[in-house]
């Protein structure tokens, strides 16, 4: 193996096809998109160089700032909920429901494999207000309340999106975090119990520090996925009412393919990429600082 990997020609033959495919699929579109950020126009009308005009437009665009506000709020709220509830579920799998946890894990994980459009249609029916009253509004009326137009009010539509994405994603994070918890040695947990650690003290002093790497991975995976939310919003609200639930990804799509502003759309995509990088670096630095303080 060392002789093969030490031969440059053999290494090139083995890695060349994969690097070529990666370059064509990933690197070329990225460079192409960066080129568009300093251009104005589209493939039909042609492109003209406009320097940093797209960036100046972005920082002065009220719709872009509103999309950033929704994206950040959605990402932070959903990340905290899906990772937090996922971690609680994983603790339940390991410490409370050991024998029957397989069936429960499967049931809770099941929404992950369902198509987004199917889940969105389900929630549209659940929260329907007109022309027919959905099950949620029926319950509201049963308890003396008034029917709510869930998709006609910005705050209500936001929480329906959060609830839908939480329902479909918490099973994934529960399984992901469960895989980290089962790697904790049983003898270490037993020693902690003999020393008097139990319940919340055991979780805080032993389980949480040892599961921190997988918890960190879950946070990064979650925040990057939620910042780039697209299909959920399009399938459920299509950014409405108005543009109240329009994230940066949908705004980028509308700008590029509805209005034909490829340059400005690429600028929005670049800003979203920078936002994802900033959050990832922040999580890494915060975790490293906590670990340094503990040591």
Walkthrough of the structure:
By secondary structure, this protein is mostly helical. It has a domain at 64-117 and 161-294: MetI-like (MetI-like fold). It has 14 helices and 2 strands; from the N terminus they run H-H-E-E-H-H-H-H-H-H-H-H-H-H-H-H. The chain has helices at 2-6, 8-36, 53-60, 62-95, 101-109, 116-126, 135-142, 154-181, 186-194, 200-210, 212-227, 231-236, 248-258, 262-294, and strands spanning 39-42, 46-49. Helix 2 packs across helix 14 (262-294), helix 11 (212-227) runs antiparallel to helix 14 (262-294) and helix 13 (248-258) runs antiparallel to helix 14. The chain is globular and about 75 Å long. The two termini are 40 Å apart.
């Amino acid at each position: 193996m060392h002789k093969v990997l030490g031969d440059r020609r053999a290494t090139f033959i083995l890695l060349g096809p994969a690097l070529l495919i990666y370059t064509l699929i990933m690197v070329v579109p990225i460079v192409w998109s960066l080129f568009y950020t300093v251009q104005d126009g589209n493939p039909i009308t042609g492109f003209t160089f406009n320097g940093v005009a797209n960036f100046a437009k972005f920082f002065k665009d009220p719709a872009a700032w509103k999309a950033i506000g929704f994206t950040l709020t959605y990402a932070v709220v959903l990340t905290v909920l899906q990772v937090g509830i996922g971690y609680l579920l994983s603790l339940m799998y390991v410490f409370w429901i050991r024998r029957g946890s397989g069936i429960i894990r499967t049931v809770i994980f099941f929404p992950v494999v369902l198509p987004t459009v199917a889940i969105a249609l389900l929630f549209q029916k659940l929260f329907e207000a007109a022309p027919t009253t959905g099950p949620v509004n029926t319950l509201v009326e049963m308890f003396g309340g008034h029917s709510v137009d869930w998709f006609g009010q910005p705050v209500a539509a936001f929480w329906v999106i959060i609830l839908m994405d939480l329902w479909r994603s918490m099973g994934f994070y529960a399984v992901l975090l469960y895989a980290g918890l089962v790697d904790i040695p049983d003898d270490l947990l037993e020693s902690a119990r003999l020393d008097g650690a139990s319940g919340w003290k055991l979780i805080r002093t032993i389980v949480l520090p040892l599961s921190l790497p997988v918890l960190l991975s879950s946070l990064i995976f979650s925040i990057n996925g939620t910042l780039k939310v697209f299909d959920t919003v399009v399938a459920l609200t299509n950014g409405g009412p108005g543009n109240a639930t329009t994230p940066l990804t949908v705004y980028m799509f509308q700008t590029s393919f509805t209005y034909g502003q490829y340059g400005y759309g690429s600028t929005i995509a670049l800003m979203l990429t920078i936002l994802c990088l900033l959050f990832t670096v922040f999580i890494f630095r915060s975790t490293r600082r906590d670990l340094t303080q503990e040591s």
